[in-house]
Design brief:
The protein is mostly helical. The protein is built from eleven helices and two strands. The chain has a two-stranded antiparallel ribbon with strand order 1-2. Helix 2 crosses helix 3, helix 5 packs across helix 7 and helix 5 runs parallel beside helix 10. The radius of gyration is 22 Å and the shape is globular.
Length: 255
C-alpha cells in the first residue's frame, strides 16, 4: 500500500491529509479495503490513538467507511455520480450508448494526448503491463478477461494524463460501463475477427503513447472508438434482422 511515515506536530491531521490525497489522486480506489489499524499505524509511523482520531475525521467527511467484522474501506464516492432513474434511462435507450461513445472519443483522445506528453516512464510501464495481459487473454480466448482488461487499459491512460477531475469523472463512467449499463462488452468479443481488430487498435494506442506521439495517440483512440461505434451499430442491425427472421419463421411454420 502507498503509505509513508508521518512527520507532523498534529499527527492525526497529517494522516487525514495523506489519505485524502491518495483518494483524490486515485491511488486508493473506491471500496478498497485499507490495512488493519495496527498495520496502518505502523506504515504511517503514528500511534493507534492518532490514527483512530484521523479515521474518525475521514469517516465524518464521508471518505471512508467502517464495516463491522470486515474492516475499513474507502467510501464508494463514485456511486452518486448518476441517479438510479438516470441509469435506467441510460440502459434502456440506444441514444445514450452512442452519446457515451462520442463522449469517450473526445475525452479519451485528450487523455491519450496528455499521457503521451505528461505520462512518466512508470505510467507507460503500467499501460504496457496491462496490454501484455490483454495479449495473454486474447491468446487464451478469454473474452470476459479481455473485456475487463480493456477497461483497465483505458483507465490507465486516463491516469497517465494526470488530471484529477478527468480521472474521477471517467472512473464514474467506467463503473457504469463495467456494470453493462452502456453496452455489453462481451457481445463485442464474440467474433474472433472483432477481438483481433480491437487488440490491434489497443496496440496502436499503446505504441503511440510509448513513442510520445501526442497526435498519433489521439488519432489511435479516435480510430478505436469509431470502430466500437460501428460494431455496435452492426450488432444492433444484426439483432433487428434476427428478430424479423424469427417472425418470418414463426409465420411460415403456421401456414
Amino acid at each position: 500500500m502507498p503509505f509513508s511515515p508521518i512527520e507532523s506536530e498534529k499527527l492525526s491531521a497529517a494522516v487525514v491529509d495523506q489519505i485524502e490525497l491518495l483518494i483524490l489522486r486515485g491511488v486508493l480506489h473506491p471500496a478498497e479495503r485499507l490495512p488493519a489499524e495496527r498495520e496502518l499505524a505502523e506504515r504511517l509511523g503514528v500511534s493507534r490513538p492518532s490514527l483512530r482520531e484521523a479515521l474518525s475525521e475521514l469517516e465524518s467527511r464521508g471518505l471512508i467507511q467502517r464495516r463491522a467484522g470486515a474492516g475499513i474501506f474507502v467510501a464508494d464516492v463514485l456511486g452518486p455520480a448518476f441517479s438510479d432513474p438516470l441509469i435506467r434511462l441510460f440502459s434502456s435507450h440506444d441514444e445514450a450508448v452512442f452519446d457515451y461513445i462520442a463522449f469517450r472519443r473526445d475525452l479519451e483522445g485528450l487523455a491519450a494526448e496528455r499521457a503521451a506528453r505528461l505520462g512518466s516512464d512508470t505510467d507507460v510501464a503500467v499501460i504496457a503491463e496491462i496490454f501484455q495481459q490483454m495479449e495473454t487473454a486474447h491468446s487464451n480466448r478469454s473474452g470476459s478477461e479481455e473485456a475487463r482488461l480493456d477497461a483497465d487499459f483505458h483507465m490507465a491512460i486516463i491516469e497517465a494524463g494526470h488530471n484529477l477531475v478527468m480521472l474521477h469523472m471517467m472512473r464514474a463512467m467506467y463503473h457504469l460501463l463495467r456494470e453493462g449499463v452502456f453496452y455489453n462488452r462481451k457481445a463485442m468479443f464474440r467474433q474472433r475477427t472483432t477481438r483481433a481488430a480491437l487488440l490491434d487498435q489497443h496496440r496502436a494506442i499503446f505504441h503511440a503513447i510509448q513513442a510520445r506521439d501526442e497526435a498519433g495517440a489521439r488519432k489511435a483512440v479516435e480510430t478505436h472508438l469509431d470502430y466500437v461505434e460501428q460494431a455496435m451499430l452492426d450488432l444492433r442491425r444484426a439483432e433487428h434482422n434476427e428478430m424479423i427472421a424469427r417472425q418470418r419463421l414463426q409465420h411460415a411454420s403456421k401456414t
